[in-house]
């Protein structure tokens, strides 16, 4: 297994393949409850833009992407319309006396491990690579996870994320999670 930064465009396509396999629209309830899921869909063009400013973190086996953890910088908040409400929430929520949007952060745009590679510590290794690469530039990593995605909530807590805000919109109940590095 190799945990690395994306360095080939083909790897962006492979990220999309893993994303599709793990999207809530394509999973059974049993799989959702056991393994978690992703809710946001990206396009190749979105990933290419995101990767041009901050290389994405992936896990590969035999040069095939089996897991990924996306870096989404503040400047891309409008890139995927489904994520705009999350960024708008950052303008309202405070952490240690500052609004989240005032912090030096980036967003974990999505993290996903293929089902046949889960429970091998890859999730944690992807985040360790994030911290290694991006803690030089950012003080925080923020993300948003559905309260219904219990496997993801548990995994994020184990890595070191804390829930700083919970809210409900017209789609779900969401938790804003923060991982402080400084």
Secondary-structure blueprint of this entry?
Layout: E1 2-5, H1 9-21, H2 29-35, H3 44-53, E2 57-61, E3 64-72, H4 84-90, E4 94-95, E5 98-99, E6 105-113, H5 122-134, E7 140-146, H6 150-159, E8 162-168, E9 173-180
Parallel strand pairs: 6-7
Antiparallel strand pairs: 1-2, 2-3, 3-6, 4-5, 7-9, 8-9
Task: Give a quick summary of the entry.
By secondary structure, the chain is an alpha+beta fold.
Please tell me about this protein's structure.
With 182 residues, the chain is of the alpha+beta class. It has one domain: Gcn5-related N-acetyltransferase (GNAT) (Aminopeptidase, 3-Layer(aba) Sandwich). The protein is built from six helices and nine strands, in the order βαααββαβββαβαββ. It has a seven-stranded mixed β-sheet, with helices on both faces. Strand 4 (94-95) and strand 5 form a beta hairpin. It is globular.
Protein traits:
alpha+beta, 182 residues, globular, Aminopeptidase
Largest sheet: 7 strands, mixed
Give the strand tally.
9
Strand content: 25-35%
Order of helical and strand elements: EHHHEEHEEEHEHEE
> Any idea what the shape is?
globular
The CATH architecture category equals 3-Layer(aba) Sandwich
